[in-house]
Write a structure and sequence with these properties.
This protein has about 250 residues and is mostly beta strands. The chain contains 2 helices and 12 strands. It has helices at about 1-20, 145-150; strands spanning about 25-30, 30-35, 85, 90-95, 105-115, 125-130, 135, 145, 155-160, 170-180, 190-200, 210. The strands form 3 sheets. A 6-stranded mixed beta sheet has the order 3-11-10-5-6-12, with no helix packed on it. The protein has a 4-stranded antiparallel beta sheet with strand order 2-1-4-9, with no helix packed on it.
């Protein structure tokens, strides 16, 4: 029995090493909200009353800036439920593992109006509430947030962000995006979305200068997206411009 369990553990480890990863769960305070698991049957998850995350059926990345899945991954089917959260509170994205070391990470919100289940995510105005990229050093040998948030002690990788305290309450989609640039001129996008019911007394809304649409905002020839970080011209640089509009902090 012990040897069988050891072999199973080795197989699981091997599969994770070659995999990319994805956003598995969310936490707000002490409450845990389960996300979609592409390794479990769709029929056991789609439409379930506890489901708060839009469906993503593969840990594989999105490679093209004009892919409709760039908004909320593919197929992006809407869940029936929402994560309740107060403006000014933290929400933490939970990844069981993450392996890629290079590229920016960002978090976005989009106001759904009366329902997030009925919207076309490609038509929504997303606005960025958090971003992080190269933290120190040069592009190849330095430290990116994408590497810093990884844990190698068996604990999950945690990505906490704060909902702007002054935001107008309502129903929103929260979109987490990791852009990995470790392969030359072949960007890899990893977006996942969930539904939020934000409460509070704020009235703030972003101006159109902060809005982005997916697809539409990112361009294929953006030098921060289509990039060879190992080239002589780039590898020693100590700055990196994160794609998209600036962060709106309320």
């Amino acid at each position: 029995m012990a040897s069988t369990m050891f072999l199973v553990a080795l197989a699981l480890l091997a599969s994770s090493v070659v995999a990319h990863g994805g956003l598995a769960n969310y936490t707000v305070g002490d409450t845990w909200y389960r996300g979609y698991d592409p390794d479990e049957p769709l029929k056991d998850q789609e439409g379930q009353p506890w489901m708060v995350q839009r469906i993503w059926t593969s840990i594989d990345p999105i490679f093209f800036v004009n892919d409709t899945g760039l908004a909320c991954n593919n197929p992006g089917t809407a869940p029936p439920s929402y994560i309740p959260i107060a403006a000014g509170d933290n929400i933490t994205a939970v990844y069981w593992y993450w392996l890629h070391p290079y590229g920016p990470m960002s978090v976005w919100l989009a106001d759904c109006g009366t329902s997030c289940e009925d919207v076309n995510v490609n038509d929504l105005n997303f606005f960025k509430i958090w971003e992080a990229g190269l933290l120190e050093g040069n592009i190849v040998e330095g430290i990116w947030y994408q590497k810093k948030f990884q844990n190698w002690d068996g604990s999950p990788d945690l990505w906490p962000v704060t909902i702007p305290s002054t935001i107008k309450p309502g129903l929103y989609i929260i979109r987490h995006e990791i852009l990995s640039i470790h392969i030359e001129n072949k960007p890899q996008f990893y977006p996942e979305c969930a539904h939020l019911n934000i409460t509070g007394t704020g009235t703030a809304v972003p101006s159109p200068d902060y809005f982005a649409k997916f697809p539409g905002t990112y361009k294929d020839d953006d030098p921060s997206i289509r990039i060879d970080i190992y080239s002589d011209a780039i590898k020693a640089q100590t700055n990196y411009t994160i794609p998209g509009p600036p962060v709106w902090d309320g």
